# Entry
Amino acid sequence: MTHHRATAPKADRLRKYRPDLQGLRAVAIMMVVSMHVGVLDIHGGVDVSFVLSGFLIGSQLLAEIDKTGKVSLGRFWARRMRRLAPGAAVTIIVTAVFAWIYASPFRFREYMSDGFSASLSVINWRLAENGTDYFANDGSQSPYQHFWSLGIEEQFYVVAPLALVVVAWLSRIVFRNRALVAVFLLAVVGGSLYLSVTQTATNQPLAYFGTHTRIWEIASGVLLALGAPLLSRMNLGLAAFLSWAGLAVAVGTALLITEETPLPGYAVGGPVLGASMIIAGGCAAPRFGAEKLLDNPVFDFVGNVSYGWYLWHWPVLILWPSILEREFTYSDRFRVASFSFLLAVAMHYMMERRLRENTKLVSIPWRGILTGVSLTACAAVATTLALQAPLNLSFSTSAGSASAAGFGGTDSVKQAVASMNRPQISETSLLKAPHDRGDHGCIDQLLVTGYVLRDECVIGDTRATRTMVLLGDSHAYQWGNAFDALGRELHVKVITVIKSGCTPEAYKITREDLGREYTECIAWRKSALDKIGEIDPDVIVVANRVQGTTTREGAEKTFETLKATGADLVYLTDTPYPGFSVPDCLAKHSDELSYCNPKAEKVVDHPEFRLMEREVAEGYGAEVIDSIPAFCAGGYCPAVIGGNVVYWDYSHMTGSYSRSLAPYLRPKFEKILAG
# Structure
């Protein structure tokens, strides 16, 4: 490691090597890793990296265009392939191997689909389409999720040289200067920033992962590269101040961003602006600028291995708890950061440097491209073949319980508790559990703002004269199969009025995946309550996920509105909340299933809010049906009851188990309907 210090005179301030940018690269990766592993709540590292990449690549492309009037696409893409493809391919394949051994068997195939998308540099669009919450902390993250930013950069590398050559040629023809290039870049920055802000408010996952909402950050770096000759003539005192102020802005605003901040939107503007100020100030090579801090042997070394560190830290973080089979502790955060750093160092010296300095690959571009394409193809083929591999189930299923009865009275729950460490379950029941999500009733998704009564919302005896409404969120939807069977038996038409994540109680809800208040829920709830008034049902059943932010005022407001309809009110208490993927747990743990069968005190959560909602419901004359006896007994809530897996994820019951609960509900509703 060497210490770099530029001593260029004012007339030749632009440098081929910028030690401050190497230091900025180190700062960016340390921000990313610190945030991901939970050592420091600092965001914006990827945004700083985007600006930096745009400046470096833009400088290369513009210099070549100025010199030759064109860009050697072969050499450019060969450099990018040699730099990016080997590390990405090795990370994807090695992660696939460890995921097959240690990760959830049911999640493995989804991981491999993500790995395939990552190998083709389009995973950002897959994540956007799936509505992925990047900051979710429920075990749903993919070990390939972090490839989204690399995918955006690689998409930029494909388009940028073509676009810049065309625009630069037109600019020379029309203006005899770079004016059109500047206008083009400003238009890209402005248009993409506008889309970023507007779509963050309407479709946060698309805004977070979309290339069109992120490209303005990279284009800002290219715009800086275009203006670098002018910036190099800046007053040295001003340049020094600008670079230090930029460092303060980048880090300071990054610390102000939290997981609740709507991202990207306006929030990433701080890190982008700060990085731009550092780069702009450094163009003039001021003696006392931020380079004094950024140019040091430690940052130089970290910058060299930053790409490998970015590749390795996330899959290590995601797979670490599964490999050790224990809770993720605070000290594990540092272990993950350190171990992934060592992997990055090893990859840098064993592979990255050798490929980058290989004279045969450097001198003959097609060889570099072929090497990159071959490695990319290997990763794509490996993940495709992995999709065909049998599930690595460690749970010993029982052939004798092929017919899963599910709930058979409270005695079946007690029996399940007695045998919960060796439950009788068929392989068929286990394999279908992750997809057994119920198939009766309708549920409106997050961005829907108004309830519309559709054919699929009507279940049970659809020709009956008596009508029942099932109102709530996804914890109401999970009862759909039970109420469909119940309605057919009691000759009642059941109408589901349900929206994901939207509890009937009227109170403010903030969703992390949207990064803002869940305003769609407020609008939908009003239209749903209006529609219920039009339906004029005989019975209204309220079921919802108990939230720690529930308010008594909100619960009373909703129950008061429902009581005014004149219908009989029923409050169906919330089901247990395991908080982990139950099918994954069963598939992985063959010897010790205690974690899959938690104590009731841990999964019957928010007892004080449960009690409050119950009191409010009873205060407005609602009949209360306690769901817990159908799930828990003897202080435990078993994962398998009557041969049926009870939950298909971390909190929602399977459609099969829901259907088996119709006999549990029937006596209570017979009494209500008779009354």
Q: What stands out?
A: The CA atoms of residues 576 and 604 lie 5 Å apart. The chain has 29 helices and ten strands.
